[in-house]
Structure formats: C-alpha cells, structure tokens
Specification:
2 domains, about 45% helix
Length: about 325
C-alpha cells in the first residue's frame, strides 16, 4: 500500500519564463521554488512548506502527482488533462520539464496511463494502482487510526529470533513487535492466519495486556509520535492563517490541499493502529490531534479547491464530472 506513495528522488524542475523569478534551485533536488512576493499569508505558508520539504529532500514530483490524481481527481472520474497537472505543479514550484520526466517514468513503471485527444494529453492512475489507492484512502482519510478499546489481542512468543520474512508478515498484518521474539497481534488467537502461526511459538490471548514503560516506548515509535508532532507544529500556522484570513484563493487552496495530503499520507499509511485503551493519559499520542488538525484544514480547503477544479480541470469530454460520494465522507464526513 505504501509503495504507491513511496518517497522517490526529486526530479529536476524546468523554468517558466512567465513565472516570477524563482529561488535558486537546490543542487540536490533540482527544484526551483517560485518567489512569493504577494503578502497573502497562505501563499507565504505554501512557500514555507515547499522550502522545508525541499530542504529535507521530501519534495517529490512523482509523489505529488500521484497524490493529486488520487486525492483530487479520483473522486471526479479519475482522468485529467496534462495542462491541468502542469498548472498545479508549477504553483508548487515544479517546472514543466520535471513534470514531463516524472510522468514518463510513472507511465513506464505502470503507475499512470496516458491518452491523447488531438493535441491534448490526459492522465489517470492505472487500474491496479487505482485499486491500491482506494484501499489506502481508508487509512488516509479515516476519522481515527485507533481501534476500539475492546479489540482482542494475542501474544505470540517465538521459539527463535524472528526472520525478516516473519517480521514483514507481522508488519503487514498490523502487529506490534514488543520484544525481539514477541509480537502483539490485534486479533483473537483463534483468528490468526496460518502465516503468523510460527512453528514452536507460544500463542496466548492477551485481553488484559496494558502497556508499561517499555511497551509505551515501543508504541510511541510505532505510532511515529515525533513525526506527527512535527507535522502538527508545521500546520498549526496554516490553521491560524485560515482562521484569520478566511477562504483562500482557489489556486492556493488546491495547491495547499495537494501539498498537505502529500505530507499527511506518508504518516497516515505507516502509523500502527492499536486499541484506544493502550494510549495512556500520561503518554499523549499526537496522532489523533494531528489528524483532527489536518481534517479541519482539509474541510476549509475543500470548497475553494473544488472550485479551482471546476474552473480549470478538464477531461477528454470537457469539464470534470461532479465528485462521487467518497469525497464528502473523508475524515468522518457524511
């Protein structure tokens, strides 16, 4: 699931002669960030996030394109013109050359499909990738990553050190390794799949297992507490600016929405889902608070960003169709 959105090496950006003078390109990434001269606080915050991502080597043309196609275009028919994609990516500091290179590689690797109508090109996620993205959406846009407090749990104690293959199988199943040879699974022992029933292992129900200091530390690592706290701090000023300035321009709303989901889904797809009662009051978990913040910003950006799609995005048959029901249901909406 995470492979669709895996971070990839940043691609070089071309320059648009009609754009404002860009900031110097990073020697590592090749990106050129547009110089933001306007006083609008949202535009300044977009530039700040782009600068931070460029500095950390997390500004990936591949990932931004897939994020845009999955987040914004998926609920509206799944197909969009190359010119629409180029316009948005240019607003995010990614030039035409970088977009063309990224699209070519994505198509060659089977991530996207390209079509032509006359002189116009159109892009869509490929069938298999589209299905994977739909599955990933359940985690990216879920109202919570915590399981119900009454979720059953089973303890598996291996008779020997866990192999890399076993560790991958447990990780894929959403299990938590709590010791070198011990794994906590959030299912009944009787429901464990055969692949997790290690030969010679001791398997027991652990319905009353509550975390001590060591386990709480493991949970904090698995729940990526530091990364969520950093993302929360990065987007608090965005929320404050939206409160003060009201609705952003449609273009900035679409750019910020794409950028925020690009950052958010990297964490949302990796965070371990655990029963809610395993989060202790004196061990705060920043993930729920960060998810709430991202959801509130997303809700504020939704209408103006959809207005940008209405005005500027096109398909081979004309404007984008209206969004399907899953758009309104994101982050617990109805």
């Amino acid at each position: 699931m995470c492979g669709v959105y895996a971070a990839v090496e940043a691609l070089g950006a071309g320059l648009n002669p009609s754009a404002p003078p860009p900031l110097p390109a990073s020697p590592k990434s090749g990106y050129s960030l547009p110089a933001m001269l306007e006083p609008d606080p949202i535009a300044k915050l977009i530039t700040a996030r782009l600068t931070a991502l460029q500095a950390s080597q997390h500004l990936s043309a591949w990932s931004l394109i897939v994020s845009f196609l999955g987040d914004a275009i998926g609920p509206r028919g799944g197909v969009v013109s190359a010119s629409t994609l180029q316009t948005l990516m240019q607003r995010l500091g990614i030039g035409h050359g970088a977009v063309r290179t990224a699209v070519s590689r994505l198509a060659a690797d089977g991530w996207i499909e390209r079509s032509r109508e006359g002189r116009n090109s159109f892009y869509a996620l490929s069938g298999d990738v589209g299905e994977t993205v739909l599955s990933a959406e359940r985690r990216i846009y879920a109202a919570s990553s915590l399981l119900p407090a009454d979720t059953p749990r089973s303890l598996i104690i291996s008779a020997e050190p866990l192999s890399d293959a076993s560790l991958r199988a447990f990780e894929a199943a959403g299990a938590l390794q709590i010791a070198p040879q011990s794994v906590l699974c959030f299912t009944r022992a009787s429901d464990l799949p055969a692949g997790l029933r290690l030969p010679g292992a001791t398997i027991a129900e652990a319905t009353t297992l509550m975390p001590g200091t060591a386990l709480s530390e493991q949970i904090a690592i698995a729940r990526q507490s530091t990364d969520f706290a950093e993302l929360h701090a990065a987007y608090l000023p965005v929320s404050a600016a939206l409160e003060q300035t009201g609705t952003p321009t449609p273009e900035d709303a679409m750019a910020l929405r794409c950028l925020m989901i690009h950052e958010w889904r990297r964490l949302a797809l990796r965070v371990l889902a655990i029963p809610a009662d395993m989060i202790q009051p004196d061990d705060p978990d920043p993930e729920p608070e960060t998810r709430t913040l991202i959801a509130s910003i997303y809700a504020r950006l939704l209408a103006p960003s959809e207005a940008w799609l209405d005005a500027y995005a096109s398909t081979p048959s004309g404007p984008l169709p209206p969004p399907d029901a899953r758009l309104a249901a994101r982050f617990g909406g109805s």
